[in-house]
Amino acid sequence: MKRYDCLKVLNEYVTEEDLVITSLGGLIEEWHSIRPSDGNMSFHILGTHTPLALGLALALPHRRVICIDTDGSLFLNLGVLCTLGNQRPKNLIVYILDNKCYECIGGPRTPSAGNVDIAKMAIGAGIERAIDVHDLEEFDRVTKDAFNTKALSFIVCKVEPGTKVFPKEKWKRTDGIEDKYKFLRYIEKLEGKMIKPCSEHI
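Request: output the structure for the sequence above.
Response:
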């Protein structure tokens, strides 16, 4: 199962009312190519993506938040599994794209390439709806269920290593700083309220 194919299936379920947090590396370009939107946000720091999505889901319990994280990022902040298991926000869907390696730094193996089972770790932390998926048909079925159920879903996708390559003219042209403010304004528009005033209002 290829990561890019999973993202294309996921895109069929995401709406303009949703907020999407993505991990880093080639995933950013892949998701941007499929769904360019100011409702997407990524930090270029491993270990931050699921916590950010969790915070958003708790702050905006009426709005669906989707996190597209990776095994490499999750392993740098495993404590978030405990917080997820204790909080269980009903509006959060977490995908862990598990390719068993740190691909963006040359491919050293992550712990899931050995005996570590991420889904079982999540269940042990109190995340009841944690599941592995191994093919696109299963991915589609599990995603449909997650989007139609008001409960925390934690979906570990067993994907092959590999990143889709795009010509330069199709690359994402904004950086994290610009994305942050666009994301903030997107939330303000959705919620109909000001979160961060412009400088002249301070």
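The two ends are 50 Å apart (CA to CA).
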